[in-house]
Specification:
With about 450 residues, the protein is an alpha+beta fold. It is built from 17 helices and 9 strands. The longest helix is centred in the C-terminal third of the chain and has 20 residues, at about 435-455. The radius of gyration is 21 Å and the shape is globular.
Length: about 450
Amino acid sequence: MRARFTGRGRTGRTIGLTSVALALTLSVAGCSGAGNVGKGDPNTINVLMVNNPQMVDLQRLTAEHFTKETGIKVNYTVLPEDDLRDKMSQDFSSQAGQYDVASLSNYETPIYARNGWLAPLGDRAEKDPKFDQGDILNPVRASLTAADGKVYAEPFYGESSFLMYRKDVFKAAGVTMPAHPTWHQVAAMAAKLDGYRKGMKGICLRGQVGWGQVVAPLTTVVNTFGGTWFAKDWQAKVDSPEFTKATQFYVDLVRKHGEAGAPQAGYTECLNDMQQGKVAMWYDATAGAGSLESSDSKVAGKVGYAPAPVEKTAGSGWLYTWAWGLQKASTHQDAAWKFIRWASGQGYEQLVGRTLGWSKVPAGKRASLYRNPQYLKNSGAFAAATQQAISSAKPNDPGVQPRPAPGIQFVGIPEFADLGTKVSNEVSSAIAGKQSVPEALKKSQRLAKEVSDAHANN
């Protein structure tokens, strides 16, 4: 995984915890109100949604298109990512049924399904030829499939990660981007390009606290350096030589050649730095490419896209998707499915392309989009690289050793949101120069061992 996730809460919390306080931003399409409003009306549904730009576009288009076509009104509650997760876990864990549908990720979906909080969607999708479940990219569909083999969420958009770089700067400096760069090659290029133009740094990497911020890209580096959070038998490995080497490399790279204010920089800050021409490279979510190539970007047409850098593995790109889950306790399941079918369907992608522009299409989920001439005309610079990154992602086998749980940039267990955030505090502190990497990982190992001991004893 924008205070997007792009995978990626700023603070992160363990699934199942309820929030102490929520700042609710209520946004409505079709009629006023949310929460219990519409619970008795079969043609009204309540949707809990993250406040990412693609979702805001969806909200704008709902009344004029979905409601007009189906007669179903949608009440949206739109929240920042962390607040969304708190509100969603509170409502779904209690099966209160306040919300029929919620935007959740491939991190939560298998956990919620295992707890019996979601209604399966696979049968509905298979019986609905217009939806075309087979068009969903295989890794995305698999990530939303629970241990029982059933699909429990349908994607709104998907992403992996890749390396974005300034083609014009590379050419001027006489630097060539390898077809499949290694991290050590990236470090050498960052050193050469650091300061090549006034105020330009070599690379931008997240340093901000959060399991979905610094921990997301760092974990992909750990994977390809041969490390892992947990061995197959749940032995904690956060202070292993491989994990330590990867973290030291990441911290050294961002401290020596990374963006200004790295300990506070997340997805949004790196995106802004890349758009403003302040960095020569940026390793992050494939979803960022659309913004880099937008009409208001200073670097549009100047950016190249290379696979996620590697060391010991063939690939290292992550896998993340924001998707739609249907609460099992919902009393409006037919209407809720119609909304999910619309929001995740090919027709919605076409609608966004026609009305808002093809760069705004929620991509990364359907194979058909990558055969669409109109989309490719507007997104050709990064479309193939994005599709390849997503299609080659291996959440069940992201490293050099077996894992006890799936996940590339996260570990697919409920405790990881809390563990990852605590570890991110230590790593971000090391980036800030307040402690050494071994000191940070020694503390982190104790935290990881608490989790591993709980799993090993079950």
